[in-house]
Amino acid sequence: MQALVIVAHGSHLNPDSSTPTQRHADTIRATGAFDEVKTGFWKEEPSLREVLRTVESEEVYVVPLFISEGYFTEQVIPRELRLDGWDVSQWDSDGLNADTATLVAEDTGQTVHYCGPVGTHESMTDVVVRRAETVTGDPDVGPGFGLAVVGHGTERNENSAKAIEYHAERVRESGRFDEVRALYMDEEPEVDDVTDHFESEDIVVVPLFVADGFHTQEDIPEDMGLTDDYRTGYDVPAEVDGHRIWYAGAVGTEALMADVVLERAADAGADIEDAIASVREETRETPAAGD
């Protein structure tokens, strides 16, 4: 038997924080690729410390639903899962290419394939683009549009910006959009000045966050000038400084994110090619803007 465990931060304050994680788990569970699909959280139940005890399978693929490598993926999750012999050097990563470390959970004896975070996987670039398609309702969106990939940014974790730059560069190299920029909340260049960084009249803004919360629902819309008060809502697109801003909300809420979770597990050795194809087919249709 083999199991998949998706681990995420969760929140005591935002009841919707865990919703994307649960939805992606449901999508993957429906494929039947794993005997068990479980979720575990740092700030919600089931906790990271107890989640492996809810799993019967002896072989477990653990995929962190986090954007970047850092404190949680390198310290908190391995510690809480009690992964014997864990050392971050086993990933041999420069902050972007963490792959898999196979270890044993000390208290359960299970073999755990501990994967890198979804946010640095190359398939996340597809999710960013799909998010742009979803918010505009246009499966061919790109020509005539600018794309802003937005991250938190922090001096405390230099890897925080790496994932943002990585995906922005991959989209830029594809040539699909007229302009592509990486912008941040707490670093330069800042998302507050989004219209200063684009000549394109239409700009799609995709925050590289796992779930919608305080930053994506309140800070970013107000900082960009979409609204003076997030509680009153805003138009999509919204007119700002002569530009149309198509604000997509958190990338992690996009259904295709389930594909990235599966890709991480496949890279770790799970035989799930049919499930990956199934999930990609299921999430291929682009809904109309506003749906």
Automatic annotation (TrEMBL):
InterPro entries: CbiX-like, Sirohydro_Cobaltochel/CbiX
Key word Secreted present: no
Short name of one Pfam family: CbiX
Keywords associated with the record: Cobalamin biosynthesis, Cobalt, Lyase, Metal-binding
Signal peptide stretch: none
GO terms assigned for molecular function: lyase activity; metal ion binding
Protein name (record): Sirohydrochlorin cobaltochelatase
Organism: Halogeometricum pallidum JCM 14848
